Amino acid sequence: MKVGIVGAGLAGVCLAAKLKRAGHEFTVFEKYAGPGGVWWANTYPGCEVDVPSHAYWFSFVEQSWSRLYAGQAELQAAIEGAIEHFQMSDRFRFNCRVERVEWRADVGGYTVMLANGEREEFDVVVSCVGMLDVPNLPDWEGLDSFKGPCFHTARWDHDQDLRGKRVGFVGTGSTGSQAAPAIAPDVEHLYIFQREPGWVAPKPGHDFTAEERALLERSLWRNRWERYKVQWWTNQLYKSFRIGSKANAEAHRASLEYIESAISDPEVRAAVTPDYAWGCKRTVLSSDFYPSLNRDNVTLVPKAVARVTPDGIVDTDGTERKIDVLILSTGFQAANYLSTFEVVGPSGRSLHEEWGGDPAAILGMMVPRFPNLFILYGPNTNGAGSILANIELQADVVVRRLERMRATGRSIVETEQRFLDLWKRFVDHRNNTQQGVAQKGCNNYYFAPSGRNVTQYPGSHYEYWLLTLVVPRIAFRTRSKLSRRRRRGAAVLRRPAARLGHERQMP
Ligand code: NAP
After folding, report:
1. Which CATH class is domain 2-134+334-481?
2. Residue 11: closest CA among 387, 287, 486, 296
3. Tens digit of pLDDT for each residue in 351-393?
């Protein structure tokens, strides 16, 4: 099979490695100048993983980490090292933005169309573009009039020297809580604008000692053991998202205690204490954010931004703070899946038309009426343990389906609407009865315009793992070009296909 992969982030690299091992032909298209995806794009100060690195990595690649939570540069180097390790650099095409993926009505498969006008044909296309790539940019009045430098954390402007500057920093999510404390010691004054506080848990990060590293590097098995341990531990966290559970109450209590112990000013303590359920937003893991609020040169502004002036920001109380630099840490368009390119299926409809603002896919991977198209890290697959583990499971599903197609000589893999309906009922029911209800009580990026939670998987990683073993066998069906019923009446259609030298033809 010839496979086109869109995106060279961790999902794209993972799938590429597995396809290489299975002997498939593939090309990875990446819009950035190098691999890594979000880890290539996000180079803000303080950027590091917040799942321990042994679990935030491929189980099948040996890697020695210098820290419990690797920094962006170390992870980026590891990703590049993995591509080298599998000797697949020649399969990656950088600075290649995919604009459109269109079904080939004559022979099946897809044509991948690049922004530079090139086209290439593939039997199967896999989207690995993730959901945290396109920045969510605010539309505040006056934003364009701001005279100083203004940039999003995911597009950090390293040419700007922040030393001695008054910096307005908007957003206190996982990114803001890493970047703001990292720049605080350098700037003259940092105004952190917090629209709604998040629940924060301390992050016990540390550099590995020489002994720890020696122990971890002794064998792949040691690394794997560490991974399974962390995977099990992070997976336990999903229990704490169940509102009303003992684990949730415990996590809530621990976060409140952390606020008390880490922040000296009672007003700031009150301002960072959320008034909604623990687990509503993605929990922020940081041992630096709260202590940074104790600094004399840091002011927490617990207000939304009302407007921007040429040299300041005005909060919703009407107070203006003069600033030299404006940094936006306002998150991503997470619920807008595959927003950077168009996929057109056999019916001529695009995937976005099909979804109508309500993205859904079985296991987050397959959509009816879009044969031979897989999605990795697609709708409703976030949140269950380390995302890397889910990505590996999804890559395995793709490889197993391709193996089946190779073994049976079938060239189409597709799913049906009734399976998607069942999947949506399963996910929605659980999202609406467990943490999902509480997730409607705060600002987060989980909901689509349809009002459905389209990003979060409502169960554990192990449950998802079992489903990836069972569901594709039932719902991701492989078949030859034409079903038997269609083939009987399609002799005329078959002839031009034979002339073209192809076996496949979509009815
Ligand atoms: P985020 O969690 O969506 O946080 C965005 C922040 O910007 C929130 O504080 C939000 O306030 C604020 N905001 C958004 N629009 C605003 C507006 N118009 N006016 C004022 N404030 C506004 O985004 P993120 O921090 O970039 O994190 C996104 C995800 O990336 C995380 O959940 C995590 O999955 C991932 N991440 C991972 C790591 C890691 O592994 N190390 C690091 C960073 C990020 P509200 O809360 O009021 O909406």
Report:
1. alpha beta
2. 387
3. 999 999 999 999 999 999 999 999 999 999 998 678 999 999 9
